[in-house]
Amino acid sequence: MPLKQIKLHKLNMRLKAPFTTSFGTFQDKEFFVTECIDREGNRGFGESVAFTSPWYSEETVKTNEHVIEDFLIKALKENDIEHPDQVSELFAPFKRNNMAKSAVEGAIWDLYAKRKNISLAKAIGGEKTEIDVGISIGIQPTVKDLLNTVDHYVQEGYKRIKIKIKPGWDVDVLREVRKHFPDTPIMADANSAYTLKDIDHLKQLDDLDLTMIEQPLEHDDIVDHAKLQAVMETPICLDESIHSLADARKAIELGSCKIINIKIGRVGGLTEAKRIHDYCRDHDIAVWCGGMLEAGVGRAHNIALTTLSQFILPGDTAGSSRYWEQDIIKPEVTVKDGVIHVPDKPGIGYDIDDEALEKFTVDVKTFQL
Ligand code: OSB
Ligand code: MG
User: What is the pLDDT of residues 175-196, one digit of tens each?
Assistant: First the structure.
């Protein structure tokens, strides 16, 4: 592909409401939108899901900037890319920094699909024309607030409700939610808030008919999760622990999880996400697409990924309005009855709202390729 330029747009957007996990609260989101431009003027877009603090993983907005500028762009300058699958190969010598890699690879995937005049979903081999989605609900001030929030999203039609938990906000709270919503698919996400010392406590969740518990133990563990899964009925889903196909294979072989949450940024891009998907499909492991409070570009990439066949559980890709007063894409992502209609326009399928992009931009850097 005749790549000409790459632009790093640093944005700052304010979430409509604070979002609290076991590790911290998000309100203002600073992140990068990457734009890759070819010689004919086609524009491909990616988004980095790294946050400003290394809470979820070691990457941050600042480490993204360093790695993208000093290594990834340099590698792109020195090599020709025919197909986006080559990008992850080109970036492989640089260890981890998966969110940085994914932000660049994502812009190249979008550009590739636009040049071929096909949707990104089609470019990666996706089949679905609509996808089922759920919603992730942060830790609330009171149980009453949580019940009201769950009720609101159940009414809106979301296909499953994910509830963030932490020690002191877990079994009793979930029991209360289950009592009020006996038939709703419910799951919990601990974001690594527990250890094996909590095994007896966590086993109480088995009475609540949860679809799964996501990442109960350490962010870098797959051994203790296997011990926990061996004594728990509730399926364990891994999020933070899975950075690659190799990680997924090892976790599945060890019995550390029965379900995998695939996040494009966490695994270094769409190419690796698809590899993990294919492996899970071949090993009968259900997958779903997680979220990182993305703006429209990242959200559109998640929608494209979710069109692959093994994404059999609803993901966290809620509508734009759940997060933002105004998104950076046109139209914004809308959800009706828990379903998103996958756009079939070329690339990510949504137009960039250049005015909105500019409005939220705090810095832009342009690099010649
Ligand atoms: O663990 O899935 C997670 C948000 C920030 C960091 C980590 C996670 C989350 C979510 C929100 O659960 C998913 C979303 O709505 O984008
Ligand atoms: Mg998670």
Answer: 999 999 999 999 999 999 999 9
Instruction: Collapse the DSSP code of 133 into the 3-class scheme (helix H, G, I; strand E, B; otherwise coil) and give the result.
Output: strand
CATH superfamily of 3-118+351-368: Enolase-like, N-terminal domain (3.30.390.10)
pLDDT in tens, 254-274: 999 999 999 999 999 999 999
Q: How far is the CA of 2 from the centre of ligand 1 (A)?
A: 36
For 125-150, what is each residue's pLDDT tens digit? 999 999 999 999 999 999 999 999 99
Binding site membership of 292 for ligand 1 (Cβ less than 6 Å): yes
Ligand 2 centroid, distance to 189 Cα (angstroms): 6
CATH class for domain 122-341?
Answer: alpha beta
- Is the beta carbon of 318 within 6 A of some atom in ligand 1? yes
Probe target for ligand 1 pocket from 13, 15, 16, 19, with the most ligand atoms within 8 Å of CB: 19
Please provide the average confidence, as pLDDT, over all residues in the chain.
Answer: 98
pLDDT of residue 156: 97
Where are the chain's structural domains?
3-118+351-368, 122-341
Percent of the chain with pLDDT over 90: 100
Ligand nearest to the CA of 56: 1
Catalytic residue, candidates 164, 227, 330, 365: 164
CB neighbour burial string for 235-272, b if at least 16 within 10 angstroms, e if fewer: bbbbbbbbbbbebbebbbeeebbbbbbbbbbbbbbbbb
- CA 318 to ligand 1: nearest atom: 15
Q: Is the CB of 290 under 6 A from ligand 1?
A: yes
What's residue 110's pLDDT?
Answer: 98
Determine whether the shortest distance from the Cβ of 33 to ligand 1 is under 6 A.
Answer: no
To the query of whether residue 263 is one of the catalytic residues in this protein, the response is: yes
Smallest CA separation from ligand 1 atom 1, residue:
191
pLDDT category at 212 given cuts 50, 70, 90 is very high
